[in-house]
Structure formats: C-alpha cells, structure tokens
Amino acid sequence: MARAAHGGGGMGLLARAALVAFVALVGVVGGARAQLRQNYYGSTCPNAESTVRSVISQHLQQSFAVGPGTLRLFFHDCFVRGCDASVMLMAPNGDDESHSGADATLSPDAVEAINKAKAAVEALPGCAGKVSCADILAMAARDVVSLTGGPSYSVELGRLDGKTFNRAIVKHVLPGPGFNLDQLNSLFASNGLTQTDMIALSGAHTIGVTHCDKFVRRIYTFKQRLGYNPPMNLDFLRSMRRVCPINYSPTAFAMLDVSTPRAFDNAYFNNLRYNKGLLASDQILFTDRRSRPTVNLFAANSTAFFDAFVAAMAKLGRIGVKTGSDGEIRRVCTAVN
Ligand code: HEM
Ligand SMILES: *[C@@H]1O[C@H](CO)[C@@H](O)[C@H](O)[C@H]1NC(C)=O
C-alpha cells in the first residue's frame, strides 16, 4: 500500500492524521448527508438488484477473484472521496485512482464484472440512466459476501456518481499493511467508523490474496517489534517463505486466510489467535490487548462477526455520499458523462 506506511516512516502520524481529517471533512461538507434507503430503485428500476446479482454471480463462477476483488473495490471507493465510484474512472493517460498506490492491485476481473453489471442494468427496459455505479458497487459487494458464504443483507441505495477523481490522495487515505492499532483506529475514526467496525471489516480478509511485498518484511525480519511486526507462527512463517522467497516474483501472492481462503467465514479471526495473520495490520488486532477481546468474540461466534460486519458495511457505504449537483448517474462506470 502506501510506501510511507510500509516503513512506518515518511509522513509522521500526526501529519497523516491531519491530512486524513482534512480529506474526510471535505468529503462530508462537499455532499450534504444523503438520504440512502433500501429498495431505492423499487419503482424506477425494479430489476436492478436481481440483475446485478446474476451478472456478479456469473463472473464469480468464472473467476473467484471477482469476490474478494469486488469487496476491496467497494472499500477503496468509499475511503477515497466517498462512495461515488471514483475508483472506476479510467483516465486515457492512466492518471486515475486505479493506477495509484494500493489501487494498482485492484482486481481487473472485479472491475470488469462491475462494468458488465452496469451495462446489463442500463439495458433493462426503462432503466437507462437511472442506477448509479456507486450503488452497483454497493450491491455487488453485498452479493459477493453472501455468494461466498457470508451473511445476506439489504443494502442502502441512492448514491450518485462523482464527477472527478484524485489520483494523488489515494496513498494518503487508505490504510497500509504495516499500520498499528492506533493508526488503523484514527484512519477509520476519521471515516466515522469505530474500532469494532474496523475489526469486523478487516474480516473481509477471510477471502482473497495479498502480494509478497505487503508482508515480506515480516517473514525476513527477526526483530519482532510490537505494533510493527507482531509475532508470527513459526510453521506459518516457514511456509510463507516458500511462497515468497527473498527473490520473490512481483506477481507471487498468498491467501489472506490460510485455512479457508474461498469461504466468507470467521476463520480469519481464528487464524489470528494462532499468530497466522499474514499482514501486520491483521495480526496486530489480536496482539494488541485493546482489540483482542473483539477478535476472540468474532472467532468464537460467527453470528456476532456477521452482525458486526453487516452493520459496519452499512456505515462504510454512507461515507461521503454525493446527492446534489456534485454527482450524476454515469452512462458507463469508466467515464463521467
Ligand atoms: C484495516 C485496514 C486494512 C488494510 C491495512 C488492508 C490491506 C490490504 C492489503 C495490503 C491487501 C493486499 C493487496 C495486494 O497485495 O494485492 C488487501 C487485500 C484485500 N483487502 Fe484489505 N486492508 C484493510 C481493510 C480492508 C477492508 C475494510 C476491506 C473490505 C471491507 C478489505 C478487503 C480486502 C480484500 C477482499 C482483499 C483481497 C483482494 C483480492 O484478493 O483481490 N480490506 N488489503
Ligand atoms: C453469538 O452472537 C449473537 C449475536 O450477537 C448472540 O445473539 C448469541 O447469543 C451469541 N452466541 C453465543 C453462544 O454466545
């Protein structure tokens, strides 16, 4: 993710927090509190949600990467300028969010699935120009969670798509894999999310992958510094060294949930209890005594995890929503109208 975050160096925590607070403020002030609601398209495009689900489901069957990729896309969309599908915009010169920082590893399969879902909705009778890409992202994120074994839930809709994007802020407003609990909490708090929300949402790492560069420091650094390199199970560490040798390939990756990488379940939290969290930012949730009770709760009770995840996803989906003249309903997700 952000290079500064990896080393813990670069921008200081305070400067980073101030920037994050500023960006969050601009996001909130820029779009007055939107009125999101469930079944928003019930009369204007009643088949929107079922169409998105069927397109996403087809793509998920062709490529499992669509599942984790879509979930991560929604998270990155909401944390960068609010949930306005700015992450989907493609600049002809490559000067867009998807080519910056952590967004450079967003799944192309997921991006394609969202674009196809949008096209399918646009083609429904009477639906052209009615359903925003930001909402399609929210629906698709909901769908991949239940399609991979997680909870089913209704999703609030009514977002508009943003008209601009900002490549530069991407690396300042997303969390890095080397973040400690204080850094995670302050970034999520600046987006209106609590520590419990943050832990529940980290449970999204129950599916999907991470490239070697995001955790390689952990497996070749012997010094275990609390807050930067929390402990790792020795067998797990050895197997990760086989996946990512010192001269690892930039395309090599490992599963974020070593036990059930394709199931949306609470195994991620159980892994943490055995020091089998891959990213430092995952393992720290168990190592730090302030967040450990919540990890233990989610590990012991998957209903508690699912309930907290659904609640936190709703809050995530409300960040920086656009409603007025600062938004529009795009014809295609990759370009403003
Ligand atoms: C808590 C702070 C978080 C940090 C530090 C973090 C960091 C990361 C990193 C470094 C990767 C691997 C990227 C790569 O190498 O390609 C990743 C993947 C992923 N993240 Fe997070 N993440 C966080 C929170 C979240 C949240 C809130 C969600 C969604 C609700 C999420 C969903 C995912 C998913 C599903 C993947 C797998 C993507 C794929 O397989 O294509 N993450 N995350
Ligand atoms: C698990 O969590 C749910 C939801 O919070 C709660 O209703 C249930 O009683 C818990 N189960 C156990 C065995 O503690």
From TrEMBL:
Residues 1-34 form the signal peptide. GO terms for cellular component: extracellular region. Ca(2+) 1 binds at residues 77, 80, 82, 84, 86, 97. The active site is at residue 76. Its EC number is 1.11.1.7. One of its GO terms (biological process) is response to oxidative stress. Binds 1 heme b (iron(II)-protoporphyrin IX) group per subunit. Binds 2 calcium ions per subunit. One of its GO terms (molecular function) is heme binding. It comes from the Eukaryota. Residues 35-337 form the Plant heme peroxidase family profile domain. Ca(2+) 2 binds at residues 206, 257, 260, 265. Its cofactor is heme b; Ca(2+). Keywords: Calcium, Disulfide bond, Heme, Hydrogen peroxide, Iron, Metal-binding, Oxidoreductase, Peroxidase, Pyrrolidone carboxylic acid, Secreted, Signal. It is found in: Secreted. Substrate binds at residue 175. InterPro entries: Haem_peroxidase, Haem_peroxidase_sf, Peroxidase_pln, Peroxidases_AS, Peroxidases_heam-ligand_BS, Secretory_peroxidase. The record marks 72 as: Transition state stabilizer. Disulfide bonds join 45-127, 78-83, 133-333, 212-244. Heme b binds at residue 205. It catalyses: 2 a phenolic donor + H2O2 = 2 a phenolic radical donor + 2 H2O. Removal of H(2)O(2), oxidation of toxic reductants, biosynthesis and degradation of lignin, suberization, auxin catabolism, response to environmental stresses such as wounding, pathogen attack and oxidative stress. Belongs to the peroxidase family. Ascorbate peroxidase subfamily. Belongs to the peroxidase family. Classical plant (class III) peroxidase subfamily. PANTHER family: PEROXIDASE 16-RELATED, PTHR31517. This is Peroxidase. It comes from Oryza glaberrima.
